[in-house]
Amino acid sequence: MSTLPNILVTSAAGKTGLPVALQLREKGFPVRAFVRRRDARSETLRRAGAELFVGNQYALSDMRRAMTGMSVAYQCAPTAPNGLHFNAVFTAAAHEARLDHVVTLGQWLSAADHPSLFTREVYLSDLLMRMPADITVTSVNPGWFADNYLMVLDMAAHLGLFAMPLGAGKVKKNAPPSSEDIACVAVAALTDPGRHAGKTYRPTGPELLSPDDIAAAMGRALGRRVRYMDISERMMTKALRAVPPENYSEAAVSQLAIYADEYRRGAFAVNAPTDHVERIGGRVPERFESIVRRTVSARPDLRRSLSGQMRATAAFLRLLLTPALDLQKVQADRDYVRIGDPKFSQDDADWQTTHQPRKTPAIAGFAA
Ligand SMILES: NC(=O)c1ccc[n+]([C@@H]2O[C@H](COP(=O)([O-])OP(=O)(O)OC[C@H]3O[C@@H](n4cnc5c(N)ncnc54)[C@H](OP(=O)(O)O)[C@@H]3O)[C@@H](O)[C@H]2O)c1
Q1: Where do the domains of the chain lie?
Q2: Are 208 and 226 in contact (CB under 8 A)?
Q3: Ligand 1 neighbours by CB, cut-off 6 Å
């Protein structure tokens, strides 16, 4: 019988949960994968030898059953409303199950007074998870994922446009990590709690890139010229609502707009890139162009074609016809908790301390 710990992976069909579960299986660890439905992703997990747990991870009774017999867990709240509820359910069940170690997926921006409610909830969840003395915790706090850019790859492939509200095209503002590289840091912490308990890691890609660099990397991977277009926040809300097949909820869009604001302010470039993927995860972080090339080779629909161009044009027209969101109203309508004096990351002294910012000219040059 295996003496390795049983590891629960929540959000196991998600961007980071799937590679976390697969990498754990490659290392021979027994994995229970929490998914909400059986589909191709759960089949991949099953074939890799993970035990599937199909349920609702926002429901305490399901989480209790999922944690039975586990000693270590990956805590990953979906990018969706009710993150604090998910994390409260997870934390309560983790106590009852007397887990030894938890690895949380938090955020680069995580801070007590952040303008984003989702981010304040992540900060609070991390604090609550760390309170009991009998569970050790490692936090993995990545910034803006490489995967976020891949959401607009269709338009880049068929219309030659990379459109996002990321500010000036030439300023290097993010070192985007692949989901697999974020996962490898989480896996290191899940499999060696003794070494990683109490630590916070911030995996990044290998180099800071500007929006123009990202467009150029997409262009090289797609074999065509791709031009960056800085769009307004209003246009971004239209685009996120028009993204098929499952549009982002209005609640999520309201928060993603704040993250785009942080991006333009240069928060994701503070003390980036880090060496955490290499030093903790034990592998060389993947370059953005290589991430795009992997995606392109897995998606024949990205090859240039008349039908692809017509699909992308139709999606663009749908975007133009989708109403923009009044982000303040969205938050007010949902009774989002407001705080008196919210602070963007770089205006927050506590955040600055934990990120040990370097006063380099590149960072000082960022404009809001
Ligand atoms: N994206 C970024 O740039 C970024 C940056 C920093 C931090 N983060 C953090 O990353 C976290 C999200 O991680 P991720 O991107 O790996 O996750 P993700 O891709 O959003 O995956 C979430 C998974 O949870 C599943 N799920 C949703 N509701 C469920 C329910 N009721 N019961 C069971 N499963 C359910 C979803 O299932 P289906 O797939 O079947 O719908 C999905 O597979 C967030 O907490 C966010 O704060 C993201």
Answers
A1: 7-141, 147-175+205-271+284-332
A2: no
A3: 11, 13-17, 36-37, 56-58, 76-79, 105, 107-108, 122, 142, 144-145, 148
Ligand 1 pocket: which of 61, 105, 150 to mutate (most atoms within 8 A of CB): 105
pLDDT in tens, 3-46: 889 999 999 999 999 999 999 999 999 999 999 999 999 999 99
Cα separation of 285 and 177, whole Å? 7
Class of domain 7-141: alpha beta
7-141 and 147-175+205-271+284-332, same CATH topology = no
Q: Does domain 147-175+205-271+284-332 have CATH number 3.40.50.2300?
A: no
Q: Tell me the per-residue pLDDT of 99-124, one tens digit each, with 9 for 90 and over.
A: 999 999 999 999 999 999 999 999 99
- End-to-end CA distance of the chain, in Å? 57
